[in-house]
Every structure is written in C-alpha cells, then in structure tokens.
Amino acid sequence: MARVLLFGRLGDVAGWREREFESPSIAHLRARLAEEDEALGEALASPGVQVALDQAIVRGDAALTGRSEVAFLPPMSGG
Amino acid sequence: MIRLTDQAFDPGALLTEFCRDRTETGAVATFTGLARAEAGATTTLELEAYPGFTEARIAEHAAAATARFGLQDLVILHRVGKIAPGEPIVFVATAAAHRRAAFEACDFLMDYLKSRAPFWKKETGPDGSRWIEPRDQDHTDLARWET
Questions:
Q1: A9/B89 Cβ within 8 A
Q2: Which ipTM did the prediction report?
Q3: B144 part of a folded domain
Q4: Which residue in B52, B78, B121 is closest to A77 by CB distance?
Q5: Could B120 and A52 be called an inter-chain contact, meaning their C-beta atoms sit closer than 8 Å?
Q6: DSSP assignment of chain B, as one string?
Q7: Contacts of residue B2 in chain A, CB cutoff 8 Å?
Q8: Least Cα separation, residue A65 to chain B (angstroms)
Q9: How many C-alpha atoms does B125 have within 13 Å on its Cβ side?
Q10: CATH code assigned at B49
Q11: CB distance B110–A12 less than 8 Å?
C-alpha cells in the first residue's frame, strides 16, 4: 500500500492532498492517477515535477514494496 | 538550528539569542524575509512544506554552507501555513570569525531557500489564488554559486 502525497498546485488540481493506493510501481501509479483524473495526469507529467519515494528523490520508475510513501513535488519556492 | 514554524516570530529576539555568549565569533550576518502586500494584490501568503523531507534537504544545504564558508553556527527559521503581509517568513543568521564568510553564507543560504528548498507558496488576493514558482532572477541568483 502506497501513501500518495500531492504538494502545491498538484493538490489543488486533484482536490486531495493525501490518499492510499495499491500499486506495484511509480509508473503504474502515475498511469492509474492519470486514468482516474486526466487533469492530474497532465499536471504530474508537467516540467519540473519531481517524485520522492520514502523521502528520497527518484528519477524514472521504481518498485513500490511494503508500505511506501510517494510524494509528487512541483517546482519549489520558499522565502 | 533548522526549524519550521506555523507561529509568527520576532527576528530581533532570535538575533539577540543567536549572539549570546559568543567570544570567538567576530561576525554575525542575518537576513529576514517579510511577506509583501504587493499594493493590495496579496492579502494572504500560504506556505506548504513536506515535514521531515523539507528540514532534511535544508540541513544538507546548511552543511554545505558550513563547509564552504567555514561557519561556526547558523540558524534557519522558516514559516509554514498562512502569513499576513508584513510578517516575517524566513530568518537566517550565520556566525563566522570574519564578516565576509558570514555575509556570503547568508546570501548563499537564501538563494537556495528561494528556489530549491521544498516549499510551495500560494498568494491569495482579491483576484483569487495562485501558486508562485521561482522567477528567472531566482535561478540566476542561485547560479552565481555554481563555480
């Protein structure tokens, strides 16, 4: 089971910021989210959106095993 | 010290505390960022962080600043949640033996916080809300340190 977190504008696009999904990989999870919500799928694929798996940035695909936390991070801006 | 807070803070009190009992420091530099009203266009600023992840990424950059500039100590306090115009959003203080290192480290840390640290910032005003992404100038500012 993966705990999926959406930050910044991604949470506004989806209308949720945290949900649980059963998914074997990040690629599968992306496809599933895009199928369920086309606007979210586009937002997740837009430039500058990074993915963190268990609080570490991952590039490309990765397997989701056990209890994972997957966070989608749009471009960041602080201060 | 690296900390996120959803409470308003007093930069003067933080500076006083940071300077206490320093007999070998020589230089303390600080930066305080305040929320702008943008002539009435912004009534609230909302900052979102990823608890745990945000502090860990900032700590990595603080360690890089400490090594690069030979800092003795630093403080980074960053607001999260809703912030009104005029309130402090971020406070950075650096301590070093001499002023150049303290100034430059403070500048370096702020350039990182503006465009790379895991925060998401939303401005709300009379015309609605929008998420803010780094400006070209923020990327240019950060690129100054990549030599």
A1: no
A2: 0.91
A3: no
A4: B121
A5: no
A6: -EEEESS---HHHHHHHHHTT-SS--EEEEEEEE---TTTT-SEEEEEE-TTHHHHHHHHHHHHHHHHHT-SEEEEEEE-EEE-TTSEEEEEEEEESSHHHHHHHHHHHHHHHHHTSSEEEEEEETTEEEEE---HHHHHHHHTT--
A7: none
A8: 20
A9: 13
A10: 3.90.1170.40
A11: no
B50 touches chain A (CB under 8 A): yes
| B134 band by pLDDT with thresholds 50, 70 and 90 | confident
A39 assigned to some structural domain: yes
Q: What is the mean pLDDT of chain B?
A: 93
Is the pLDDT assigned to residue B119 strictly greater than 90?
yes
Chain B residues within 8 A of A78 when measuring between CB atoms:
47, 78, 90, 113-114, 117-119, 121
> What pLDDT is stored for residue B69 in this prediction?
97
B76 inside domain: yes
| Average pLDDT estimate for A22-35 | 95
pLDDT band at B145 (very low <50, low <70, confident <90, very high): confident
Task: Please tell me which residue of chain B has the smallest CA distance to A52.
Answer: B53
Number of compact structural domains in chain B: 1
- Total domains, chain A: 1
Partner-chain contact B33 A5, CB within 8 Å: no
Residue-number span of the structural domain to which A62 is assigned: 2-73
